[in-house]
Design a protein that fits this description.
With 341 residues, the protein is α+β, with helices and mostly antiparallel strands. It has helices at residues 38-49, 78-85, 98-107, 163-169, 174-177, 199-214, 222-240, 242-272, 279-305, 312-333, and strands at residues 87-91, 111-117, 135-144, 149-154, 157-162, 187-192. It contains 10 helices and 6 strands. Strands 1-6-2-3-4-5 form a 6-stranded antiparallel beta sheet. Strand 4 and strand 5 form a beta hairpin. The longest helix has 31 residues, at 242-272. Residues 1-26 are annotated as: Disordered.
């Protein structure tokens, strides 16, 4: 379906200035984990683009769990985004070309989140661009179908793509357009339906989200559960080599470490807005972030040497720090009774 569009489409209300305030600077050079995961990173950049503070809704990170083969892939819950920022996230029904759907929704003032192939993303030049087919999510805020150009958020920034890459991302190339074996991608529409909370209403909502998510803490320390299978994981890493270690490192130490670095940012925000939080909570949360990086380096060295490393000291530190963080937050905020509420 060809788009008869002669104007560039972008969401209404976008501040044309590139240098919007970045409170907390979550993607700053001093970050322990400068990149977290594709979905989380694009939301951080999108909220900054709107002049909002992404730290206000980070309470959900406290409920991360170990899932047997990975740590929870943390992402802002849709309900939290709606409550704090007045933004609704809904899955889109895709039946026409991606270009047609994106043009329609961006033209209506919305932002579109799309699962795409990193093979066509120039900002992944150091990793996947024109090298490998890797699924990731981008947020499209601007599209010009006639010029075949769009602007998107991904990882640490905002980028523009055009030409062959544009056609590849939107599956307009004949080899992709006519391939009946390709499933429609997962796509979400982001709608700003009301003004974001501010002042006391905002801080109260953020504290209530913390209380709610503390009521959903894992029953068992997730690091304890991880260490129960850690030796088997290390054996698998040594047997399968560098490529497997790269995926393991992203989905376990990085997700755990980056999650708790984000939790530290969220707790810092609450402290800035009148809630008394012991400094030790921030110290222990930061230690989880840094110790996960140490553990990842030790695993990389184990792969290089072909010799197992139980990483016992790292796991001791992580296990203890997790307990201190969660118990400290429970003492400060309490937790929601999810049975009655």
């Amino acid at each position: 379906m060809e788009q008869a569009i002669d104007t560039v489409l972008e969401p209404a209300g976008i501040d044309p200035r590139e240098n919007t305030p970045r409170p907390g600077n979550l993607h700053g050079d001093d970050a322990i984990w400068q990149e977290t995961n594709c979905y989380m990173d694009l939301w951080i950049e999108l909220l900054y683009r709107w002049g909002l503070d992404p730290r206000a809704a980070l309470a959900f990170t406290v409920m991360q769990d170990f899932e047997g083969d990975h740590f929870t892939f943390f992402k802002y819950p849709a309900a939290d985004l709606e409550q704090i920022y007045g933004t609704v996230v809904q899955e889109m029904a895709i039946y026409d070309t991606l270009e047609a759907h994106i043009a329609e929704q961006v033209g209506r003032g919305h932002t579109v989140l799309v699962e795409v192939d990193s093979f066509y993303l120039p900002d992944t030049r150091a990793t996947a661009y024109r090298r490998s087919h890797v699924k990731t999510t981008i947020a499209i805020e601007r599209i010009d179908p006639l010029a075949q150009r769009l602007s998107y958020f991904h990882n640490l920034g905002r980028y523009t793509v055009d030409g062959e890459d544009y056609r590849g991302l939107l599956r307009l190339e004949p080899a992709l357009r006519d391939n009946t074996l390709l499933l429609f991608p997962y796509v979400e529409c982001v709608k700003r339906v009301r003004p974001p909370l501010a002042g006391r209403a905002l801080s109260n909502a953020a504290a209530e989200q913390m209380r709610w998510h503390l009521g959903r803490l894992p029953e068992v320390n997730p690091v304890t559960r991880w260490r129960e299978v850690f030796d088997d994981h290390v054996s698998a890493i040594l047997a399968r080599g560098d490529a497997y270690f790269h995926h393991y490192g992203f989905n376990l130490p990085r997700q755990l470490g980056a999650n708790f670095e984000m939790l530290a940012h969220g707790v810092t925000w609450l402290g800035e807005h009148g809630y008394r939080v012991p400094a030790s909570i921030l110290t222990y949360a930061a230690s989880i972030a840094t110790e996960c990086k140490v553990l990842q380096f030790r695993l990389a060295r184990a792969v290089a040497r072909g010799r197992a490393d139980a990483c016992g000291e790292c796991l001791d530190t992580l296990e203890s720090a997790y307990t201190h963080v969660t118990q400290g937050l429970l003492q400060s905020f309490g937790c929601a009774d999810l049975v009655r509420e």
